[in-house]
Every structure is written in C-alpha cells, then in structure tokens.
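User: Hey, my collaborator sent me this sequence without any context and asked if I could get a structure. I don't really work with proteins. Can you help?
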Amino acid sequence: MLGPVILAASRSDRMRRFVSAAPGTKQVVDRFIAGETVDQVIPIVKDAAAKGLEVTLDVVGEDITTVEQSYAARDAYLELIERLKELGLGERAEMSVKLSMFGQALEGGHELALANVRPVVEAAAAIGTTVTLDAEDHTTLDSMFAIHEELRKDFPQTGCVIQAYLFRTEDDARRLAAAGSRVRIVKGAYKEPASVAFQDKAEIDKAFVRIVKILMAGEGYPMIGSHDPRLIAITQELARQAGRKPDEYEFQMLYGIRGDEHVRLAAEGHRMRVYTAYGTDWYGYFMRRLAEKPANLLFFLRSMITKG
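Assistant: No problem. I've predicted the 3D structure and written it out in structure-token form, which is a compact way to encode the shape of the chain:
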C-alpha cells in the first residue's frame, strides 16, 4: 500500500526538497535517469543500438508553471532531435513527451501544448522517427487524445499511451486499434481514485491482458510496456494467436530495470525499446518508479542508510 503514499509525495515540494538532499538519492536516481544532458544520453543511445535495442527518449520535467518553461521544453526536444540527426540515430530513437511539460495545464493549455508539440513531431518525422504522447493523470486524457488525433492528420505515425488501470481504457483501445496507429499499453503510474481506476493489482493485470488482446486483434501497432515476465509471456501467446510476426509489435521497458531481459528479447528477434529518461527535473519521474515496485523503494532506503 506504499504506492499511493509515494505518488502523493511526488506532488509535495517539501518531499522534493527532502529527497533531493538525501545522501543516497544520486545513486538511485542514476539507476533510472540516463543523465542530465543530451551529451550524456547520446552514448546510451549508441550502446543500445549496438545491442540491437531501440529507445524512446523522455526529457523529464513535466511540473512547469510558465509559458516560457513550455517553450524551453519544446526547444530541449528540438535540440535532442538535431543531435540524433547529426549522428544518424533517428531510426533507432523515438521521443516520448508529456503534454503537461508543453503547457497543457496552463491557461489556454490545450492549444499551447498542441502548438509546442507540433514542431517536435515535424522535426522527428524529418529524421525518420516519431513521437509518442505519454498518458498522465485521467483529467488530462481527453485533451491528450484530441491532440493525438489532430497530429495524426499530418503525422499518422504519432503514438499515444493508454493505461490499464483506468476503467475507460478498453473502450479507448478499441477506438485506437486501427490501421496505422501506434499504441503503448502500460499499467499506469499515477494516483487515481477508485471512481475511475482499478485499485487491486490482480484486477489491473486482468485489464492489461484484455487490452493487449484488443490491440493484438486490431490493425495497429501495439507497444507493450511491462517488466512482468508473466505478462510478457501472455503477450507473446496473444501475438501468436493473432498471427502477428515479431516485427508487428514491440516490448518496451524502462532504462535501469531488467537490462538482461532487454537484451534477451532482442536476441530472440523481438523489437525491444528502452524508455530512457534524462534531464535535471527528475523528481516526479523518479518517485513514480519508486511507487511502481517495492524493490525500488527498498533499494533507495538502503542507499540512504549506506550513504548516511
């Protein structure tokens, strides 16, 4: 039951200051965050490519409060895309973006986020890659899906994320599982009320499987975001039943978690993409990783004790 407590702490400025100052924090953050700058993350992209892996890159920092910060977020992604272009890595790396980072929660935020993300999607397409719109808390999803639909008019390869723990997601999956679509399914990592989301892990897992089945039976391209060996095995069986070849869907896992499994799946011929976050405003992303799995929290607490 620690997960909801940690997710609540992810919104606390007081906890942000405490965690940032804790002696063991850097050791644990370095496990999940690939670096603070483009220069630090590019070698990781190269290393992944050498191992037969692909990546999706996330510039962390969704908790913005000004329009100027939303422009800075846009420019950070444009800088990343330019570096990937220079190094010929466009086909190995896509981008994941949170629309809150592009101003979605500000006044006039829907239009602002669309205006900010469009040049990023356009620049990504120009170097042979694409962008996936990350899902955030349930209050933002109608805006996210509307922006996704608008972007796909000119850039049909633009992806989006759906979350298994939300009651609405099976209907969203049916709507999105159309030809040309790219849909990432994850369990969900935000604190959501019982009125909109499953709270029990077993129920979330069942929903995840139902949604994977919908996506596999559809005409789009499913992206399976999970580290759970059982769900990965079920996904492989559902793909087989749907007659999908290994290049007609992909697995996605987080940087810093189950690295051996990344390589194993790629070696078996599966498309395997590593969700790789970098940047200086890492707190919200980091706290969600702690909330997702008790072992991550225990690793953090041990580090604090060791370094204290």
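In plain terms: The radius of gyration is 18 Å. You can pass these tokens on to your collaborator as they are.
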